[in-house]
Specification:
CATH superfamily of the largest domain: Response regulator
Radius of gyration: 21 Å
Structural class: alpha/beta
Strand content: 15-25%
Length: about 450
């Protein structure tokens, strides 16, 4: 998922204290026993939050996902030469309109850092997080990236919208500061310095659109955010609709600040499609669902983005129930890793946390995959860590199921589940598809064969 201009909405950030890591360690011990617009002018640097590492109460086995301790691979790792913490960076929208996405991602970042530290850290050293709030503002992203580059960091996990990613990715690349982008997006980024954990259209839409055509009918109407994520995703909808014997009979694109959809809903009803495909993004666009339900419209809706900002919690059941989505992660997934992950999450952030989103789990995975690769490489050296990440053997027992980093494309092989929004602020999982590769990225991008490639491929 990924916007450029504006958007809106809610969710106050949960307070993080230095006690989380120690609390988390105790939890773990218990668990182990049982367009081309002008470039913005940088604003003042974003507010920085440095989360110190904790070195006591540190178990030496399982991570919080419930992974069994695996036999250590042979590496060149030696005893650490220093006990100083390893400093790492995060740049996310913790305030402003996009914090409906950024809050759970920031929470997942802190939980992952605490989890890794509680499991012994990286190379025997604790992690110290430098967290910046980009405030849903492109200028803050640019300033924040510059600030993080000036820090002595081993890696940065950053960005939510595609526009934010493209504003900061070159900065990290030029500085040779390893970069993880942990968000669902339109796909196609091919850059040796960048690794992506989010689902891409050839994983998500190749499941969602054929299901919609088969179950609802061949005529689709697309409503999408008016920027690269919405536009490129709409291209993929047309591709998969045609492949499944369907067609797109109408499409409309909306700037992120649009919140009035009455005219559009009338046009959709006049076109009489079999299904509406929503690629809408952000707090303003959320109003589409309540306005659509208020008209009494009975044309079903499938979406590439509904629920990523806990829309099913913010809206009443009449506005959300029955919407079909496809993501790798749902809080309701029934597996041991997810049971331990959700327990740790709620122990840390409270049982009243609205919903653990798919985006949060991409972040959780990104940090653990990086930590594993560094431990395997036995060094923080960027080239050595990239080489390890490119082996195709860096995997993680995620709350959504096993994931593996595809070396040449720098994207994940991961499961995707179809689900239906229910009347209880959650989702009912319909079916899960295991081990779906990022096939377009694999076909377009081979960074092992051509490490100098640096572009975004489109269909």
């Amino acid at each position: 998922m990924s916007p450029p201009r504006t958007s809106t909405h809610r969710l106050d950030r949960l307070t993080w204290t230095r006690l989380v890591a120690a609390t988390l360690a105790l939890v773990l011990l218990a668990a182990s026993c049982g367009d081309d617009a002008d470039e913005p002018t940088p604003a003042g640097a974003p507010e920085q939050e440095s989360v110190p590492s904790e070195s006591d109460d540190t178990p030496d086995s399982d991570t919080m996902s419930g992974d069994e301790a695996e036999e250590a691979p042979e590496t060149s790792e030696a005893a650490p030469e220093t006990s100083e913490p390893i400093r790492v960076g995060s740049l996310l929208d913790e305030t402003g309109p996009l914090n409906i996405y950024g809050t759970p991602m920031a929470d997942a970042t802190r939980l992952a850092i605490a989890s890794i530290n509680a499991s012994g850290g990286v190379l025997g050293r604790q992690l110290e997080l430098v967290a910046l709030d980009s405030k849903s503002d492109q200028n803050e992203y640019i300033a924040g990236a510059d600030q993080l580059v000036a820090e002595d960091l081993a890696v940065v996990h950053a960005g939510i919208t595609s526009a934010s990613r493209e504003a900061i990715r070159p900065t990290f690349g030029e500085a040779e500061l390893l970069y993880f982008y942990n968000v669902l997006y339109e796909g196609g980024v091919c850059d040796r310095n960048t690794f992506v954990t989010g689902v891409v259209p050839t994983q998500q839409l190749q499941v969602l659109i054929p299901w919609a055509v088969e179950n609802y009918g061949p005529r689709l109407y697309v409503l999408a955010a008016d920027y690269n994520y919405g536009q490129i995703s709409a291209d993929w909808v047309r591709h998969y609709a045609a492949e499944a014997g369907g067609e797109v009979v109408g499409e409309d694109f909306f700037p992120l600040d649009v919140a009035e959809f009455g005219t559009t809903i009338s046009e959709v009803q006049s076109a009489d499609p079999d299904v509406v495909v929503s690629v809408l993004v952000g707090g303003a666009h959320m109003s589409f669902y309540s306005q659509y339900a208020a008209t009494g419209a009975e044309i079903p809706v499938v979406s590439t983005s509904f629920g990523l900002g806990s829309e099913q919690v913010a809206l009443d059941a009449a506005s959300s129930e029955g919407i079909i989505v496809a993501y790798p992660y749902f809080q309701e997934l029934d597996n041991p890793a997810n049971a331990e992950f959700t327990a740790a999450w709620h122990d840390t952030f409270g049982d009243d946390y609205p919903y653990i989103t798919d985006l949060a789990v991409y972040v959780w995975e990104g940090w653990h995959l990086w930590a594993d690769a560094v431990n395997r490489a036995g060094t923080l050296d960027r080239d050595a860590v990239i080489a390890e990440l490119e082996t195709g053997t860096v995997s993680f027992d995620s709350p959504k199921g096993p994931v593996t980093l595809d070396g040449p494309s720098h994207h994940l092989v991961q499961p995707v589940s179809l689900a239906r929004a229910n009347d209880s602020n959650g989702f009912d999982v319909i079916e899960t598809f295991e081990n779906i590769p990022p096939s377009f990225e694999q076909q377009s991008c081979d960074l092992i064969a051509d490490p100098d490639t640096n572009e975004q491929f489109t269909p």
